Amino acid sequence: MSSADLYAFHLISAPAGIPVSESHPLERCCVFNAEAQRSAEDAEDNRPALDVLWLRPPVALCAFVRIRGPVSCLPFYYRFMPQTALITGASSGIGLELARIFARNHCDLILVARESDRLRQAAEDLQQLSGTQPRVIPRDLADPQSPHGIHAELAGVPVDYLVNNAGFGLGGPFSAMDRQTGLDMIQVNVTSLVDLTRLFLPAMLVRKSGRIMNVASTAAFQPGPLMAIYYATKAFVLSFTEAIAEELTGSGVTVTALCPGPTASDFQRRAAIEHVKLVKNKSLGMMSSRAVAEIGYRGMMQGKVIVIPGIMNKLGVQSLRLGPRAIVRKAARKLQES
Fold it and tell me: How far is CA 183 from the centre of its chain?
């Protein structure tokens, strides 16, 4: 069998009423080998008349293929290729809700989380939603080798959306925190996020297409007494995201920092802050993970650099920018106290 070159793709108008052959939206189109064969003798001048793949009206895709050298057959078929989303911390909370949104939008899913059982259960639930089996990669991002391992496992897989959602916090005085727990928090919240971004960004730049979401927090806009490392890591994520978003202007790749405030999830239990004022005070507006994910997804798709879900969170961030730092520190401490 001889090789064939893709000569051109053309988007053309199609008359209304053309039947839809696929349910996925057009994201990326490729030519694939298929079992069916077409004899070169049936094609005049070695140029076969390839079928047109019709999309939802009024758009259609027409492909032209140039053949090099004598061939005995030309096996091709056409299909849509749904885009691929890689989501860390995908077994619960905001990460799981984002996975559901991507599944609704016909994306192939790659889910990463440290708890294998919860991750596989989440994948089963998502398969029922989308009809497509997500790929699961159980990895603990506290391990410095995990980002490289994830990237190596996905060699050849184009990742269109990278969602760096994995992260954790822990309440209490810095001096009383377990040393390794603090270092693990920096590794998960900062180092692994940077490493994954650096590993998957170059391919996006080659394709001139891609979106990255880094989940930060409203904690990024202030110091956080009694959660010092967590607040500092989120400040890094916000600063890092803004910087590379500016660097990538005009590249076709966007980077978004999602900065939620208090959000109903398993985060509070793991951080041991279920009884602090920030969590218990209903007037501060605890949002659901689903609401945060929906707002974050829309903002990312619009190419926004910073997304702050919820009116109370937006007002809170603006007040932080206006207040003296000494007052901001003391107010933050009050909210972290029981």
Answer: 25
